[in-house]
């Protein structure tokens, strides 16, 4: 009987230590267990940010996935497909010169959404894996998930192309407008000099 009580006490102590290592946060309706070192961050509906995006954040990127994932994909120094448990994940890592450290963006499906964990470093440590494992499951297959991300990159490239065309059109328009303003300015100058000459 003493052995059973001893093991029960040990089990409770291990459980309480484990529980104190993680706290819970709900982002866009999905609950995550995060390392306690990142608790007391700023929680909004679709994001949880501890200090800043370079330190730690969990984002639901559905509403801006093209700019978020597409932009991070374009500048990533490391791009890696992987799995955590049976869930597909995509790791993008970029060197951040302002903090002189690598910052990683780990994308993964939750329910019918795509989430991103931002953290310092270039490897998926156990505490980051735990966040993904603690998240609600998704029915999105690996093929669907990676296919979606591929389409996002294509759309981001298309938007950049359209922006370039738009910028060129704006440049031509602004250029013509400035030329017109230069003509107007020169006419104004001529009028001023002629009318004010004595």
Structure description:
The protein is an alpha+beta fold and about 200 residues long. About 45% of the residues lie in helices and about 30% in strands. It has four helices and nine strands; from the N terminus they run αβββββαββββαα. Helix 2 (about 65-75) packs across helix 4 (about 140-195). The longest helix has about 55 residues, at about 140-195. The chain starts with a helix and ends with a helix. Residues about 5-20 and about 170-198 have low confidence and may be disordered.
Task: List the keywords.
198 residues, alpha+beta, seven-stranded antiparallel beta sheet, two-stranded antiparallel ribbon, 4 helices, 30% strand, globular, disordered C terminus
Brief write-up:
With 198 residues, this protein is of the alpha+beta class. Helices cover 47% and strands 30% of the residues.
Work out the helicity level: 40-55%
Separation, N- and C-terminal Cα atoms:
117 Å
**Count of beta strands:** 9
**Strands in their spatial order, largest beta sheet:** 3-4-5-9-8-7-6
SSE pattern: HEEEEEHEEEEHH
- Rounded average pLDDT: 81
Radius of gyration: 26 Å
Q: Structural class, please? A: alpha+beta
């Amino acid at each position: 009987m003493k052995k059973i009580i001893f093991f029960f006490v040990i089990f409770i102590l291990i459980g309480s230590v484990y529980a104190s290592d993680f706290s819970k946060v709900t982002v866009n309706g999905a609950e995550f267990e995060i390392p306690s070192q990142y608790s007391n961050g700023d929680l909004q509906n679709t994001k949880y940010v501890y200090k800043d995006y370079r330190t730690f954040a969990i984002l639901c990127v559905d509403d801006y996935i093209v700019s978020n994932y597409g932009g991070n994909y374009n500048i990533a120094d490391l791009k890696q497909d992987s799995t955590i448990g049976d869930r597909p994940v995509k790791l993008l890592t970029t060197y951040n010169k302002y903090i002189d450290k690598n910052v990683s963006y780990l994308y993964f499906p939750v329910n019918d959404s795509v989430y991103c964990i931002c953290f310092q470093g270039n490897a998926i440590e156990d505490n980051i894996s735990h966040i993904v494992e603690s998240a609600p499951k998704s029915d999105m297959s690996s093929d669907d998930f990676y296919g979606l991300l591929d389409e996002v990159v294509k759309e981001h490239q298309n938007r950049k192309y359209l922006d370039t065309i738009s910028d060129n059109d704006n440049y031509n328009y602004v250029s013509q407008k400035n030329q017109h303003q230069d003509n107007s300015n020169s006419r104004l100058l001529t009028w001023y000099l002629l009318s004010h000459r004595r």
